[in-house]
Specification:
Length: 182
């Protein structure tokens, strides 16, 4: 797998395709049209690769950055940036992914634009709905993954315990052990 899905929310996992956003050199996980195709397949959004082009990749990155901008505004309790709102609304107005029933069950197919439309519509629901209050950004300095904090006390700090949470806790443990042995 080329992509990770720690959030359980596809638009927020899509935002995470630019890793370590705060670092001097973030890691671009959508570096080619083929990696965009892989994202749609690995996410389960589409069952067949949409055949992404360079133009599709540009649209995808524009949507990703617009969604991140909206999420960051909600987290920081700032007004939503008009340009990001316009981009997400434009992409949300596209046709939906095609779902067909066949002898082997349901199949989801579509173009990149259809997949992006589905992501944009779900982003609208999150950013424009009650769940916006649950938006968080991972506390691990090297991570900038955004997620919905659905924990009981709404005090979750990491995008995923199995990755960032474990890394932070292991580093703190090593620091304590190093401090007690000196």
């Amino acid at each position: 797998m080329n992509h990770a899905f720690p959030c359980g929310t596809l638009p927020l996992d899509f935002v995470g395709t630019l890793r370590a956003r705060r670092n001097g050199e973030p890691l671009e996980k959508l570096a080619s049209p083929e990696l965009l195709d892989d994202w749609f397949l690995e996410s389960g959004m589409l069952d067949l690769a949409p055949g992404a082009s360079e133009a599709d990749l540009s649209l995808a990155v524009d949507l990703r950055e617009a969604v991140y901008s909206l999420v960051a505004a909600r987290i920081e309790r700032r007004p939503l940036p008009a340009e990001a709102v316009a981009e997400v609304n434009l992409q949300a107005s596209g046709l939906p992914v095609t779902v067909r029933l066949g002898p082997d069950g349901a199949t989801r197919t579509g173009t990149v634009v259809q997949g992006l439309a589905a992501l944009a519509r779900e982003a609208v629901e999150i950013v424009g709905g009650e769940e916006a209050a649950l938006l968080r950004e991972c506390s691990r300095p090297e991570c900038t993954q955004v997620y919905l904090d659905r924990s009981r006390g709404h005090r979750r700090e990491w995008c995923a315990m199995r990755t960032c949470g474990n890394r932070v806790k292991a580093a703190a443990y090593r620091a304590r052990q190093h401090g007690t042995t000196s």
